[in-house]
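cron nightly-structures :: item 1 of 1
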Amino acid sequence: MSIDTDTVRQVARLARIAVTEEELAPLAAELTQFLDWVEQLQAVDVEGVEPMASVHPLTLPRRADAETAAEGEAGLRDPVLTNAPDAREGFFAVPKVVE
């Protein structure tokens, strides 16, 4: 894909970046080179490759899921959950908010 100087000028205007006329041609060449590289990446077969967030497998440390309470508050879970609109297995149940 080829980017011309008019496209670079329009993108710079939309991004509110000051670009001189002398910088337009080198930027167009650089953006064209970048888009060519992206096209090469799209040609790579990634079938069966699991998405990952890091190159190193990370396991976050976890603490024990234990009920803790300040002095004099122990055993209040059940009375508190009676006020919940939806409680399941000793926890507040909330609707899913992220798709």
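cron nightly-structures :: done
The beta strands are 87-88, 91-92.
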